Amino acid sequence: MDNISIALDAMGGDHGLSVTVPASIDALERNAELNIILVGDEPQIQQHIKADGRADTVKGRMSIQHASEIVKMDEPLAQALRKKKDSSMRVAIDQVKAQEAKACVSAGNTAALMAIARFVLKTVPGIERPAIVVSMPTELGFCQMLDLGANVDCTPKQLFQFAMMGAVLATCSQGKARPKVALLNIGKEEIKGNDMVKGAHALLKNADDHVDYVGFIESDQIYSGDADVVVCDGFVGNISLKSVEGVARVTSFFLKQEFNRNWYSKLTGLLARPALMRAAAHMDPRNYNGASMLGLNGIVIKSHGGADRVAMRAAIEYAILQVEKDIPAQVKNRVSKLVNLGND
Amino acid sequence: MDNISIALDAMGGDHGLSVTVPASIDALERNAELNIILVGDEPQIQQHIKADGRADTVKGRMSIQHASEIVKMDEPLAQALRKKKDSSMRVAIDQVKAQEAKACVSAGNTAALMAIARFVLKTVPGIERPAIVVSMPTELGFCQMLDLGANVDCTPKQLFQFAMMGAVLATCSQGKARPKVALLNIGKEEIKGNDMVKGAHALLKNADDHVDYVGFIESDQIYSGDADVVVCDGFVGNISLKSVEGVARVTSFFLKQEFNRNWYSKLTGLLARPALMRAAAHMDPRNYNGASMLGLNGIVIKSHGGADRVAMRAAIEYAILQVEKDIPAQVKNRVSKLVNLGND
Q1: CATH class belonging to A1-127+295-328
Q2: Could you report the predicted ipTM of this complex, rounded to two decimals?
Q3: Which CATH architecture has domain A133-286?
Q4: Could A265 and B254 be called an inter-chain contact, meaning their C-beta atoms sit closer than 8 Å?
């Protein structure tokens, strides 16, 4: 296998270098074909590499690209985009543009990452806006859900494009020859939903040759495995995803409360722990960390801001998968075949 | 305490009479002041009462109002509203209009129930559209979330009205003198969100005298208890609620899978069961079944369609609470004080 270079925004995320450097070395140890360009403050990066102590084991496959600025997690978009041209995020994306790297990974500010990526890399012809897509665990495996927050207001045509891109990802990363694509709605009947969803439904129904469209699904079906691709606008997708995060947190809160109630429940909790942990692992976002910004001329992976070392490594390895499958070329190819279908 | 009459759509829901009749008798046994009017097919209702065998224990507090038709769960709105004037749903709501009952409870078709209720009872002056509100469990107690599916497209003004109604319910049902009201959004910053949310934000910020508005929250905070009232449009609310239902189902699926893996995990699962059940009870929708259709001149409670006997009883008892607090009068009173505040 050819070498794969990935540019990592080493300063991004809630934990910055204390996560990005060890996770990079973990990924390098596990993936012999991988090269990582750590982008950020060189002296600080050097210091963290030294502290880690494993630099020798991955010799020659780790380099540093200095960047003098950092995009803050709450930094306004315009400022990040226009004023910080030497931010670690921007320089990491520039590496992709300059073909020094095949992909960029960042745990930084999502909105800034999307805006900079779109500005630097541009979208594939036929795609108006990139979408954020995540693999969600289902009873039957995974589904690709998009958009998860990049696009607050969408047109039916844009949802149609998301459907096409999601289908490409389901085919490439899950091996589904003809993935089932569904539109997220508040009911299954044709009369349900808002104008945007109804419009996208009409476009998808008429695109039989291009996509296996299975109609509307409600959000309680996302996790059942009924669809391989779930399409929605970014507002709705973000609300759905974060609702689940919230309820996972409160469930864990109630579980701890109940298992800590007395010595007997503490004991049973201890005994049940292995099975509980295995069940939780199925749903653990750390194990499938890495959202893809689909529709760009290049691969950009957004890690969860709070990612720990395991999660960050998962995001890097997801970038490797996207490089191996050459997702941007696949998207370009698929979209180029659409004539008069939402892309007229 | 005065007697409280509640009209129950006895034919509604996935399980119909086999749930509504026993649940009614359960509720009557537990609530001495309660009277129930069972609305539906009289011979069938009689038969189920007889089969239950407890009619004597609640003598004189249960009556039957015959209705010859049933609104099906998937029946088109227009047909349910215009063609079925003798449906159990319609006749139950008519009982409220005629002041024969103080509240109506139905587990039937949500859209039909809302449309018929709105047509028969009308909205309180100052409220353009009723909203569906549910009490959601949080780490600190409960929050009122609305709208959960009645209104697919909303204006900022309507969201503002939902905020006022939600605050009334939080005060009356949770004893919060000045409930914290938040708007559901995809970020906390003012620049985040769509035009509808931004417009509602502007209205609520200027309504200090009327509401303790705490700004935007993201959907992972719904369950943390940071807000007593969470406001959103019906599309987003429905997506959020059902996402949580879906993930609860897949979590339970993975738990069963892991606890059934071998004899040891089966045993630990058995031992941990009491604590797991207690934790699950906090989140069990059966224990807080009953969505309120707020903003109508009358009390209409929507039970989950799949409600079992326990859940149906919870919905009936929620109706009693709403009658005792006279929620429609409270809403009317609160809204009448709004001058030039989203209701100009």
Answers
A1: alpha beta
A2: 0.85
A3: 3-Layer(aba) Sandwich (3.40)
A4: no
